[in-house]
Amino acid sequence: MSVRPVLVHPDPMLRRACDPVTAVDADVARLIDDLIETMRAHGAIGLSAPQIGDLRRVAVLEAAGEGAAEGAGQGNPARVFVDPQVVAKRGAWGLVQESCLSVPGVKGNVLRDTRVRVRALDREGAPFEVELAGMDAVCVQHEIDHLAGVLFVDRLSVFRRLALRARGALAGERRAAAVARS
């Protein structure tokens, strides 16, 4: 296990869609361990593989909001999601303030579903489905977005994005997007 560097916007790797994981093997287990250690070292509640420069569909969470596993983030194992996908959305949308290790210094309000059902593989490769609510639901949607090359700033209002660009918080955004598409 090791703490890996976190890529920062506008790194073009953050805009690339990740590849499915064909087998949960020792290499994927190392990736999972590195994600957990890096997430904890930064005090984050979630982290996805592209944030550490790996383009496989793997994310980890330690959110401890409503609907979290009892004791999450308090010595309990992090939740591991290999090839996650939202299979159902329940409940209303909620406006939540998000931030991201890959977009330091930026916070913004994003509309997210407040309850989702997610299908994924666990760290041993076994399939599972779980219903998440509150902050856990928000966090898993944020991380699944990363796996598709989407950042939370893409979900901010047009006015908020323009304000962030004007103050230089999203500098290099257009150039990085052009590089990622090529």
Describe the structure.
- The protein has 182 residues and is an alpha+beta fold.
- Helix content is 26%, strand content 27%.
- It has helices at 26-41, 134-147, 158-166, 173-181; strands spanning 46-48, 58-61, 79-99, 107-121, 127-133.
- Residues 65-74 and 174-182 have low confidence and may be disordered.
Structural class: alpha+beta
**Oligomer category:** single chain
> Rounded to an integer, what's the Rg over CA atoms?
16 Å
Number of helices: 4
Poorly predicted parts: 65-74, 174-182
Main beta sheet: strand number and arrangement? 5 strands, antiparallel
Mean pLDDT: 88
Strand order of the largest sheet: 1-2-3-4-5
Task: Please report the distance between the alpha carbons of the first and last residues.
Answer: 33 Å
How would you summarize the topology of this molecule?
Blueprint (H helix, E strand, L loop, with lengths): L25 H16 L4 E3 L9 E4 L17 E21 L7 E15 L5 E7 H14 L10 H9 L6 H9 L1
Antiparallel strand pairs: 1-2, 2-3, 3-4, 4-5
Question: What would you say about this model in short?
Answer:
The protein has 182 residues and is α+β, with helices and mostly antiparallel strands. It is built from four helices and five strands, in the order αβββββααα.
What descriptors fit this protein?
182 residues; alpha+beta; five-stranded antiparallel beta sheet; globular; disordered C terminus
